[in-house]
Fold:
Amino acid sequence: MIYAFGPYELDTRVYELRRSGTVRPVEPQVFDVLAYLARHRDRLVSKEELLEKLWPDRFVSETTLTSRVKEARKAVGDTGEAQAVIRTQRGRGYRFVAKVEERGEPSPPPFEATTSGDQTSPGKSVAGESPVASPSIGVSAAPRSRTGFVGRARELDRLVDSLRRALKGSRQIVFVTAEAGVGKTTLVEAFLSDTAAVPDLLVARGQCVEHRGSGEPYMPLLDAFARLADLRESSLLVECLKTDAPSWVVQMPSLVSDGEVAELRARSGASGERMLRELGMLVDRLTASHPMIVLLEDLHWSDYATLDAIDALARQSAPARLLIVGTWRPSDVKAARHPVYALTQELRVRGQCEVVALPEFDREELVSYLAMRFGGARFGESLAPILHARTGGNALFVRNLVDSWIDRGLVRRRDDVWTLEADLADLERDVPDSLRHLIENQLAELEPEQQRILETACVIGREFPIALVAGSLPASDDDLEREFERLEREEGIVRAAGTEHWGDGSLTSRYSFVHDLYVDVLYRRLPAVRRTRVHQQVGLELERAWHGRESQHAPELALHFQRGLDRHRGPRYLQSAAEQAIERNAYREAVDHLTAALELLAGAPPSAERDCVELQLRCKLAPSLVATRGWADVAAEDSYLRARQLAEELADAASLSQTLYGLANMYEYRGEYVLAERIAEERMTLDAGGCLARSLESHELLTCSLLHQGRYGESVRHGEEAVKAWEGLGPNELDLEALILVVQAHGWTSGSLHFAGRADDALSHSARAIAMASQSGNELARASAHIQAAFLHFYRGETDRCAEMANAGAAIAREFRFPFHVACARVLLGWTEGVQGHFAEAVREIRAGIRTSEAIGARMDLPVFHAILALVLERAGEKGAALEALDLGIALVTRGRSFFYAPELYRQYGVILAASGPERREEGCAAIRRALEMADAQECPFFALRALANLASLEGNEWVPRLREAAGRFTQGLDTLDLRNALLTLDGAA
Structure:
């Protein structure tokens, strides 16, 4: 449609405003205001209607709207006084009053919903379609031509195609990559404006912000959901969050009441993958009724957890009407070695994402830009080569350079016609070398007070509230409001970005820099001392404004006090930020915060208070390092040992107990069982007569440690004590951590009971572990119970039951990323494959499990894993490789150290040697006799029975009486494979 009024034509088909046939450049939002008012010229249009219709998925303040109306008036030759085109009715809205003639038909929007006679309901599939319903989407074939938007038709079409696939239920991920200023944001904004006709579309926008500090887990996603809840469909989103994602909604307490937060916090779990699983459920629920675009901008500043979330959403196979669009800069990613590049490559290899890389504009596109910018003036063809040579086609460089020509009168408008006032040779010499140079020149021309205001604002970040700038400077809100309005109107450095409620409840305006490069240039030019001082001032003002709610803003406070070198507040807020990260299971971010806190604290003078702070930091850093780097990490051990030293010096019994438990747990997983036992016993002495929860921890750890040392009676005793401690816990102490421990205590006890000859009791404990874990619904407890049960059935030689338990545990462990449990499951499933004769698959699985276990520093069960590998290799006829595997297992069982599976390692070794020929028979029998000695020393009747059966077969009747006696002592496990094999051997001897 063309709306003609006076000498002007507003053409919605090609998105142009023309005066007497000459295109007049206007910003897209200004054009939208003109078009909407012209289309509804028969009535008054309220401000609220304009905000809702033109920006349904974004928060736009009335200040911004007023600014756009002012620009619209200016574009059509109107004024605030004359109001011949757009009339303001104060307090109510606007009306388009110029006489209008309509010409032509309106063009269809790029996305146009059509109805079909046979709509498919969500969840119901039709042939060749995804089981998720979507509207039919038609795309306009008309070329897109917008003011300020040159080229990019191909890239825009790729985004359109991705959304079209998403609307059919095929989840899509698109990364838009380009250097600063090339036009990522412009492209995405143009794409989003084309989606207005998609029914029920939700657009969630999240921003990764460098100056808010690195490592606030899931920040852009939380930001996106919070904005979406504020804008529209809030009741649906909040209900979905409460139902499907309690771990997420507790991170956004403003969306629910205080009572609901407490209830939801109790429902949300602490497992490492729970938030990712809940995110998947939330997306599935939302996209069943509403197609959804999630825009995550500037992923080159993203936290690790957000990238994990993108990866998790990509891995899900269920249909979802979801499109994730992420933007990032290649140079920033390369400089910081940011993992978003690795994620992008991995998703591309798996065929789960598309990359839209924006090139710089070529000369032909710059000719089009100049024609648009200067109303079709012919000198654009001459200017384009100069513009391209000096800017490389970078969109922001181009715009700023052209602006500088206009500002200095080198290109000028005379009677609505643009003319070139300078020689081309002068322009070639005049052009600055870079956009940074342009920005620095622009800033240098500002008044000193304006520069000081902008320097303070840049320390806050790309977007900032005026109240925070005012509180960090000796200036009033009103004075700053006027200055920022001037900077927006005259310099184009900042723009209005809405309003927000400040700490005292007052309303303050928000502004943002028009581009990150302004922030970067301003921040870099700040002298180091002043930069430090401004960070400190901003931090103090934020602390004052958020009094009583500081913990909710810990990451931002931590950043400013860290960069402000505040050695008192910095570590405190960094610790708080780390605690939030740990609560979200984002341990890499926690490590970053805690490491930064320790570095800051290192400059503080020695004192007991300083040591107390360091102790708290170390107690959180050590387990976070284990969670991210594995149990073998040296830095984690160093942190535990330093925490132990500090706790002893400060006589802090609670911290010492916590540290000793962490150390003992680390050594246990490393396979240093004796050291783990000694530290656990020391902890029990320290806690004697104290907390039952700590008693449960220590007894469970000792149950595990003593099992691995082959001290089965002592292990069982500690397992029983762990169960008693659990049963004595009060209601407030029955948390998930305690549940996981008692489930594992039952599992370790079952193993010790089996080797002690109480096979039926062992099965009973295993069944109790599975029942408790299943009733709790806790993922780690369920994985542990099933994997420990799988080991028990492996010891019993029950292939099918072992496979059943290992598969159940593997499914949970893979979904929630418990690497140790995955490693155990792969080894055990490899054994079951080997029993069935699938030797290649079996060996591959077992070796993969061993590699995973070694990678995470879990050497606890590696000797067993090598023994299992040897079993499969022997079955496959690869006796040499089997002996090599057993050599590795035996090497891990060092001299002077007892290990429960050592008898089996030697017995298997001896059996293979004895079967290798007469010349090695005696050597093999000697190894089996050694295995028998070890089994007797451990008081393990099952291992002794195996060794005796082998010796009776190899060396004859001298071993038969001992075998008969050993078999006769069993009162439980009479149906086990070991006992049946022993009886068969006795029958053969008879």
Remarks:
- The mean pLDDT is 85.
- DSSP finds 45 helices and 20 strands in the chain.
- The two ends are 104 Å apart (CA to CA).
- The first strand starts at residue 2 and ends at 5.
